[in-house]
């Protein structure tokens, strides 16, 4: 499923990313790699606040729906 | 012998704090990701042999943002004697990703394990010695904010720099990947490429910058090597990232002891529950913005009946400047008329006009710096992203636009932190639409003289709203017709909330005001002298005619006959449809391009005939002596010699009354035309200093010209609309 569908408090494993190459690199640099766990710790109309490798990262929903988690 | 030491690390890792601690220089410290956009240099306080360079904060050394390119070019091409890699101990796993890439460059490295106070407060433990053994570089635990551990760090860095100890290659990658890297490295080496080991990894990472630097033939050979090892459905780049993180996970497992498994809720999480809450976030944001502007320019601060800090400071500066002008006037008693005029009417009056609102800009920027340093600004960017996205921008554009309320120069510079080129270009254009401090006197003068019978506060506010609405419309249009790149994404680290130190807020705020102060010292200084010259001289000044005609033998002329008047007469017809096609308002627009505050100064000079001695005496007669002293009259007594200057500098700048400059109404006859004039000055090309900043950010004159053209077209269209439509109602 897409990361954008996750509920607050949920933790899931990143499977893949479907989007532009440069965005993939930026995500990779911030710790979004296959096999990594992400937790949703907040959300608001702008998007989600995630916890990846102990760091809070804010993502807009459009981007969050390109990240596939399991 | 001197050694260069570079500071590298993730954004928000405390790098700039460490830099300030080491060099003691005035540097900004930010909690806004990407605050250090250029590398900065300083000499170490304690060891003068060490030259420290602060590199921009980056998450990796890939070449996809301006910051990353600056950082990696410095490390690879300029080869510092050592690099201090600052690792935020509270997010060590993510931070070590950059560390591995720094180690790959082969530059002698020391790791500074920062934020150790927070790590300890959480009850976690990081085994620095073990980490040092695994990575084969010195690791020094520090707390940059308090200065703890910095002495030891410096000693290690100096030793590493002097010893030029290159780090040992780590076994990060698996056998297959390492074999491919080695093969590529050999290929590069045999072709005489420098830094072949580093370039080999980068080429596998699909690095376009490095690929562009080698020959087509070599590229083909390398492509073959990679193609042989990895099929078309495999992505070596992702494999490299994955293996780096795997390696880091192993290292972290061996060296970090966490007090609790999983994530424990921190203070930052609790604060975020309110500040980024889906319902509360915007109301809280609105309150904070209200406070921000109340502190800056409110005459009645929080309804307490006292002026806000910004206004209070502005008054103080003005009275000091008035005193200084008086002293200089006394000293110039015997100077020739034109020297007196240059110093008093040109330089002192010109600079004095800027000093009046520098305090407002300063207070605004100190508050903005506070919001950045404490971590809230990143949340604002996120919360506003949804709204800004509708207008075709990113939430990150908010910061430059907010700074635009102070001064366009730092505002345009701040667009550098935006990731997408489209956002950068559009935001740089919109920043010029904001009612910067220098435009406020224009509104004050026009509202008080030409809108005397209207609700003046409402008219002033409407100008602010006009600027914001225009910015939104222009952004939408630009997205649709000019910069059609599609929506950009929002990815941003939300740093932990930290109470910033007073020192860092001041350093950070000063850094922003500095750009403005430098502008005041150079561009505005030169331009005031230029305007003074153009408006006081004509051709007859130099063929002796003026000297013969003037009673005192001065070669200067009346402004009506000056060079400036000639310029105004030529361009005035262009403004006819906007309602102000006369030479004096036209000159005002032109001098506004040099610096916006010039508009009011120019008006005061151009309508000088209105300001007769009798008029002034009558005008000031209604004030008590206390009020007169406050306005700048020494001892509170009316002084006909000082009256003219005080009138143009104090009264007009803050809004006089409807009788100020009565002849202005002959040139700008209707309210619609007056509003059009304000709108035109609000939106048209910003001052030259800001255009210079735009050129730096947009890179080429062509792009800059395009941006300025868009601003001019917007200003003309908006002013035309106001004059025509407004003319029907007002």
Give your account of this protein's structure.
- The complex is a heterodimer of chains A (70) and B (730).
- Chain A has one domain (3-69): Ferrous iron transport protein A (FeoA) (SH3 type barrels, Roll).
- Chain A has two helices and five strands.
- Chain A has helices at 21-29, 61-64; strands at 11-17, 37-44, 47-52, 55-60, 67-69.
- Chain A has a five-stranded antiparallel sheet with strand order 4-3-2-1-5.
- The radius of gyration of chain A is 11 Å and the shape is globular.
- Chain B is mainly alpha-helical.
- Among the domains of chain B are: 3-163, Rossmann fold, CATH 3.40.50.300; 175-257, Helix Hairpins, CATH 1.10.287.1770.
- Chain B has 34 helices and nine strands.
- In chain B, the strands form two sheets. A six-stranded mixed sheet of chain B has the order 2-3-1-4-5-7, with helices on both faces. Chain B has a two-stranded antiparallel sheet with strand order 6-8.
- The radius of gyration of chain B is 30 Å and the shape is elongated.
- At the A-B interface, helix 1, strand 2, strand 3 and strand 4 of A face helix 3, helix 11, helix 12, helix 17 and strand 9 of B.
Index terms:
heterodimer; A: 70 residues; alpha+beta; SH3 type barrels; five-stranded antiparallel β-sheet; 19% helix; B: 730 residues; mainly alpha; Rossmann fold; Helix Hairpins; six-stranded mixed β-sheet; 61% helix
């Amino acid at each position: 499923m897409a990361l954008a569908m996750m509920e607050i408090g949920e933790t899931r494993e990143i499977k893949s990313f479907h989007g532009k190459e440069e965005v993939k690199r930026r995500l990779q640099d911030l710790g979004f790699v296959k096999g990594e766990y992400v937790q949703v710790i907040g959300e608001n109309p702008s998007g989600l606040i995630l916890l990846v490798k102990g760091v809070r990262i804010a993502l807009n929903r459009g981007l969050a729906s390109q990240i596939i988690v399991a | 012998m001197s050694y260069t030491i570079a500071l590298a690390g993730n954004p928000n890792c405390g790098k700039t704090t460490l830099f300030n601690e080491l060099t003691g220089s005035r540097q900004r410290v930010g909690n806004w990701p990407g605050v250090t956009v250029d590398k900065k240099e300083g000499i170490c306080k304690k060891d003068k042999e060490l030259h420290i360079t602060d590199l921009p904060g980056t998450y990796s050394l890939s070449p996809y943002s301006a910051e990353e390119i600056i950082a990696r070019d410095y490390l690879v091409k300029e080869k510092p004697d050592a690099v201090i890699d600052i690792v935020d101990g509270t997010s060590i796993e993510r931070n070590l990703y950059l560390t591995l890439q720094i180690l790959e460059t082969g530059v002698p490295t020391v790791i500074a394990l920062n934020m150790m106070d927070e790590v300890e407060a959480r009850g976690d433990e990081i085994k620095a010695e073990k980490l040092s053994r695994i990575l084969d570089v010195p690791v020094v635990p520090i707390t940059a904010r308090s200065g703890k551990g910095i002495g030891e760090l410096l000693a290690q860095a100096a030793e590493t720099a002097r010893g030029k100890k290159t780090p040992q290659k780590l076994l990060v990658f698996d056998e297959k990947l390492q074999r491919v890297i080695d093969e590529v490295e050999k290929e590069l080496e045999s072709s005489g490429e420098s830094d072949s080991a580093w370039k080999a990894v980068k080429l596998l990472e699909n690095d376009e910058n490095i690929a562009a630097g080698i020959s087509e033939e070599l590229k083909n050979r390398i492509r073959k090597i990679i193609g042989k090892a990895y099929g078309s459905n495999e992505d070596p780049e992702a494999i490299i990232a994955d293996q780096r993180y795997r390696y880091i996970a192993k290292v972290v497992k061996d060296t970090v002891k966490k007090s609790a498994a999983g994530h424990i809720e921190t203070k930052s999480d609790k604060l975020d529950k309110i500040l980024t809450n889906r319902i509360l976030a915007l109301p809280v944001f609105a309150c904070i913005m209200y406070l921000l502007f109340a502190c800056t320019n409110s005459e009645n601060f929080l309804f307490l009946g006292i002026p806000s800090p910004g206004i209070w400071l502005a008054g103080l500066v003005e009275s000091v400047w008035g005193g200084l002008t008086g002293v200089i006037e006394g000293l110039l008693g015997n100077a020739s008329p034109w020297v007196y005029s240059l110093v008093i009417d040109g330089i002192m009056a010109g600079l004095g006009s800027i000093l009046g609102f520098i305090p407002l800009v300063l207070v605004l920027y100190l508050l903005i710096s506070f919001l950045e340093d404490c971590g809230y600004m990143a949340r604002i960017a996120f919360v506003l992203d949804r709204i800004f996205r509708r207008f075709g921008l990113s939430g990150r554009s908010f910061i430059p636009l907010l700074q635009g309320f102070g001064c366009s120069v730092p505002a345009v510079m701040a667009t550098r932190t935006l990731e997408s080129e489209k956002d950068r270009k559009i935001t740089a254009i919109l920043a010029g639409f904001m009612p910067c401090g220098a435009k406020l006197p224009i509104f004050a003068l026009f509202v008080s003289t030409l809108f005397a019978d209207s609700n003046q506060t409402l008219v002033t506010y409407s100008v602010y709203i006009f600027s914001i609405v225009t910015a939104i419309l222009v952004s939408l249009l630009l997205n649709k017709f000019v910069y059609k790149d599609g929506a950009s994404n929002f990815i941003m680290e939300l740093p932990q909330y930290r109470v910033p130190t007073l020192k860092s807020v001041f350093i950070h705020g000063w850094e922003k005001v500095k750009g403005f102060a430098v502008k005041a010292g150079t561009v505005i200084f030169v331009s005031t002298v230029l305007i003074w010259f153009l408006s006081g001289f004509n051709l007859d000044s130099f063929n002796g005619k003026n000297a013969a005609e003037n009673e005192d033998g001065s070669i200067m002329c009346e402004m009506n006959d000056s060079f400036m008047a000639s310029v105004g007469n030529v361009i005035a017809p262009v403004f006819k449809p906007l309602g102000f096609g006369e030479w004096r308002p036209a000159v005002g627009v032109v001098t506004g391009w040099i610096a916006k505050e010039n508009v009011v100064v120019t008006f005061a000079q151009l309508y000088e005939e209105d300001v007769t001695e009798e008029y002034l005496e009558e005008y000031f007669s209604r004030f008590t002596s206390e009020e007169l002293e406050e306005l700048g009259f020494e001892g509170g007594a009316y002084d006909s010699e000082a009256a003219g200057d005080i009138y143009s500098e104090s009264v007009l700048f803050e809004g006089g009354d409807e009788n100020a400059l009565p002849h202005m109404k002959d040139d700008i006859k209707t309210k619609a035309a007056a509003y059009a004039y304000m709108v035109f000055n609000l939106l048209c090309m910003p001052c030259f200093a800001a255009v210079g900043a735009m050129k730096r950010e947009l890179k080429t004159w062509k792009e800059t010209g395009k941006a300025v053209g868009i601003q001019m077209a917007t200003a003309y269209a908006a002013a035309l609309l106001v004059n025509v439509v407004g003319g029907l109602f007002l």
